[in-house]
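Fold this sequence, please.
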Amino acid sequence: MSQLVLLASAPPAVINQDYLLQARQMQALSFAVHIPLVCFGIAFPALVLFVEWLYLRTGDELYRTLAKRWTKVMAALFAAGVVTGTILSFEMGLLWPSFTASFGSVFGLGFAIEGFSFFMEAIFIGIYIYGWSRLSPRAHFASGIPVAMAGFTGSLTVISVNGWMNHPTGFQLRGGKAVAVHPLAGYIVTGFLVAAAYAVGRLRGRWGRYERTALAIPLTVAALCSPVQVLVGDWNGREVARAQPTKLAAFEGLGQTRRGAPVHLLGWYKDGRVEYGIPIPRLLSLLAYHDPHATVAGLDTVPADERPPVNVVRVAFQTMVGIGIMLALLGLAYLAVRWRRKRLPESHWFYRALVVAGPLSVVALICGWVTTEVGRQPWVVYRVMRTSEAVTGAGGIPVGYATLALVYVGLALAVAWILRRLARVPFDPVVVVPTAAKEA
């Protein structure tokens, strides 16, 4: 902490950089591509292991076939994550040299652990892929456990570093334990995306026992996590109110500090107030402090040059919350049918909604990241170092930005091509089950 105070008292000079916005957009593009892949790195190995465990427990070859096919998808997405993660690591040093030079000793250990986790994950993914016919069933299952563990630990350390950037006094670590890591989002995004792919098959008439099983498992996980994520979001909002009141004011567009602050649904922030919004009296005070009469700090508590771009943060936040509520309701509807009728929903409208829910979950994830990162601006380390102090003074940023965009377009096309080829691989004869077979 003394080192942090010393750095805060003597911040580096602002670098003359004409491309600060482009550098931020370049970094944001990389995060937008990488974050959904991180979700799959956290959640998908656990789903694959669960399906393989079902095979070991029941001996049903359908589960083995499903696990083998999902393993190929896991490998393809891991390879894409390697590309995007490598680009991000270079960007940290090339785009933000002052940040890494000043605070490398603070977050270096976290990134080192992430590096070890990555190599462990890569090694055991290789063993897992090539061990299907070479290891005993139990040994093969055991080789997948480090994959799931490494995906979680690597993501945990990176999220902890980001938590420190948002609140460098260290509230993210209590008694040596990280308390602001929410892996639920990874399971929600992965679950809804995988289920959406099989929902498309359902709408096209492909609805055998394999498709029903492949949809039910990830959708159940997502459905269980999405309502819990709403509660986690409530807790996180109160943490933001305590630690970053300016960010909370940007969420709502609260220009002036006031007692019994309202929430405005929709609307546009202009001249210190929200216009065209639907006000709900005292709700912001209630959500932030569990007291409808509590005083909430407004944007007027900080100078204008220390306020984030309010409408960007506000739109991202409301989009994230709106989609999160819709996903929770969809998950609850699914769980209600499964519990009361012991089957999957039959309505075509449910599967149409599920197809939309897959990409919307990614939109909510990205909006959550925008809310966190843009809401922290103009600071790269909250109230310690400004983003303008961390950016490189080198030229050529627009050229690098355009090149990076082309690389990601090519990567997206390559991943889509691989996944389509994997989807067209014929099934083993043992899993060709009549459509009328018993549901999973």
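The radius of gyration is 23 Å. Residues 1-11, 169-181, 432-440 have pLDDT under 50 and may be disordered.
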